[in-house]
Amino acid sequence: MSKFFINHIALSVKDVDKSILFYQKLFDLNEIENTASNSKTRWLSLGDGKQLHLIPRPDASINTNKAVHFALTTSEFENFVLRLKKLNIEYSDWLGTALKDYIRKDGIQQVYFQDPDAYWIEVNNDI
């Protein structure tokens, strides 16, 4: 069987400029060229050839729940939580306890928060 790898995550966003600023400020992501089209969709590099595509849909109805999320990992978990606090971004554990990280049964720490369009994002230390 063929091997599969994550290529990109695509999100519909109401204000692509606002979303670009959010992801750049929080994760230090670099914007890269949208090589697929001349649309207003903007791409950010997640590293290792992986990308985040932000597709402008100003009239879209975006409905989310925490179980539908994407997760990023970092070896600098504590520093990332401090960054969330510095940027006044509310975060919680899986159960929804504000300003609390969660330690899974396997010892991995994680926090959850939402972007400007209410998409859920998990950041953990599963390096």
From TrEMBL:
<dbReference type="InterPro" id="IPR037523">
    <property type="entry name" value="VOC_core"/>
</dbReference>
<dbReference type="InterPro" id="IPR051332">
    <property type="entry name" value="Fosfomycin_Res_Enzymes"/>
</dbReference>
<dbReference type="Pfam" id="PF00903">
    <property type="entry name" value="Glyoxalase"/>
</dbReference>
<protein>
    <submittedName>
        <fullName>Catechol 2,3-dioxygenase-like lactoylglutathione lyase family enzyme</fullName>
    </submittedName>
</protein>
<feature type="domain" description="VOC">
    <location>
        <begin position="5"/>
        <end position="126"/>
    </location>
</feature>
<dbReference type="InterPro" id="IPR029068">
    <property type="entry name" value="Glyas_Bleomycin-R_OHBP_Dase"/>
</dbReference>
<dbReference type="InterPro" id="IPR004360">
    <property type="entry name" value="Glyas_Fos-R_dOase_dom"/>
</dbReference>
